[in-house]
Write a structure and sequence with these properties.
single chain; 156 residues; alpha/beta; Alpha/beta knot; five-stranded parallel beta sheet; 44% helix
């Protein structure tokens, strides 16, 4: 199952980019044996200042046809890491070829795009900077692959 990070904003060099690149590289290495990956990052940027609606249009263009859409949203479900791994496995096992993880901009995700999502995922009731969410979801992808592989990376 190919994974697509469809995100608003361009990440420049720095510690966040280094962490994301590291976790996604690890995920691809471990995930390959479990039918996960590769990961493609699709960065979109609304240069005209059209707000959430314009960002949603750009994100929709980045979505692969037929992809399962998982949107990062504070109103979404809070799940444990093992539950997230199980959900990835279920999507993969039911024939999902492409999973799109959507991260909106500073104002969040347009309500229309949010309602199109197959699943809303939350990292809790706190609001996180969208660039930090990219690091967190990248780590959770790697953690999910490690859980599927049965390694001791994830400890309770």
């Amino acid at each position: 199952m190919r994974v697509h990070l469809c995100v608003v904003g361009r990440l420049r060099k720095g510690p966040e980019k280094e962490l994301i690149d590291d976790y996604l590289k690890r995920f691809e290495k471990t995930g390959r044996a479990h039918g996960l990956g590769p990961v493609s990052v699709h960065e979109v940027e609304d240069r005209k200042g059209g707000g959430m609606a314009a960002e949603a249009d750009l994100l929709r263009r980045a979505l692969p046809k037929g992809a399962v859409i998982c949107a990062m949203d504070e109103r979404g479900q809070v799940v444990s890491s093992p539950d997230f791994a199980a959900r990835l496995g279920k999507w993969r096992d039911t024939g999902c070829q492409d999973l799109a993880l959507i991260i909106g901009g500073a104002d969040g995700i347009d309500p229309g795009l949010r309602s199109d999502a197959d699943f809303l995922l939350s990292f809790g009731q706190m609001v996180w900077p969208h660039m930090l969410v990219r690091v967190m979801i990248s780590e959770q992808l790697y953690r999910a692959a490690q859980i599927m592989a049965g390694t001791p990376y994830h400890r309770i």
